[in-house]
Amino acid sequence: MKTSSKKIIDNLVNCYPHLLSCYESVTQGVYEIVNCYKNDNKILVCGNGGSAADALHIVGELMKSFVLPRKLAYDTEAIIREVCKDSGEYLINNLQGSLPAISLVNETSLISAYSNDMSPDLYFAQQVFGYGKTGDILIAISTSGNSKNVIYACEIAKVKNIKVIALTGNNGGKLQGLSDVLINVPENETYKIQELHLPVYHAICLAVENEFFGI
Q1: At CA 213, angle to CA 39 and CA 57, rounded to 5?
Q2: Which residues contact 135 (CB under 8 A, 6 or more apart)?
Q3: Tens digits of per-residue pLDDT, 42-101?
Q4: 182 and 133 in contact (C-beta within 8 Å)?
Q5: Which phi and psi (to 5°) does residue 45 adopt?
């Protein structure tokens, strides 16, 4: 890991000293995600309620520039100029390097149809089964660590040889036994857990972005 990336994690615990207990797991989470992307894999993210919003937020930070410019590779620019004769420069000037990530919370037609036709607690699991491949990572967000639909998604992740990074509260719940990296922030009330999840996944996204697009 770059020294500058490590400083991002150091800054997380400097700003939120009570997250010191999560320092190693956050560092490990960054390492796993970076390794995932280096092997041309992707991130899947799921959660319920406020954690569903967090899932969307994480995807937004990974799929486009967070704080760093993400200039396209020279060979990619050359291909765009060759294929897109009229719009090439516009595309090159506005597209950004991307870290592939998919939220499992916003496929409304799929979720509603699957919930109606099959089992409503398996729509995350179905998407992990459909999208996931060996080497991907599932970021599973559950303040209790016991959300059934998230648990089922993690079980299918294990079937597909997909690593699980879990974001939970202090207890960790059942996700303790299903996660490769457990980031259990030291709070017990749902809203307080969610308040700590935000700086944690911001730090992770910043560090991962820095690994690929930083100096």
Answers
A1: 80
A2: 36, 39, 41, 161, 162
A3: 999 999 999 999 999 999 999 999 999 999 999 999 999 999 999 999 999 999 999 999
A4: no
A5: -135, 135
Residues 6+ apart with CB under 8 A from 110: 123, 126, 127
Q: Please write down the HEC assignment for all residues of 37-82.
A: HHCCCCEEEECCCHHHHHHHHHHHHHHCCCCCCCCCCHHHHHHHHH
H/E run at residue 167: strand 163-168
Q: Evaluate whether 142 touches 47 at the Cβ level (below 8 Å).
A: yes
Cβ-based neighbours of 154, under 8 Å, separated by 6 or more: 138, 140, 164, 166, 175, 178, 179
- How far from the centroid of its chain's Cα atoms is residue 164's Cα? 10
Contact 207, 10 (CB under 8 A): no
Percent of the chain residues topping a pLDDT of 90: 98
Domains of the chain by range and CATH? 3-66+98-213 (3.40.50.10490)
| Cα 208 from Cα 99, distance rounded (Å) | 9
SS3 16: coil
The DSSP output letter for 99 is: -
Q: What long-range pairs does 122-127 form, CB within 8 A, spacing at least 24? A: 122/149, 122/152, 123/149, 124/46, 124/149, 124/150, 124/152, 124/153, 125/149, 125/152, 125/153, 125/155, 125/156, 127/44, 127/46, 127/153
Looking at residue 131, the DSSP 8-state letter turns out to be: H
Task: Kindly give the pairing relationship between strand 43-46 and strand 137-141.
Answer: parallel
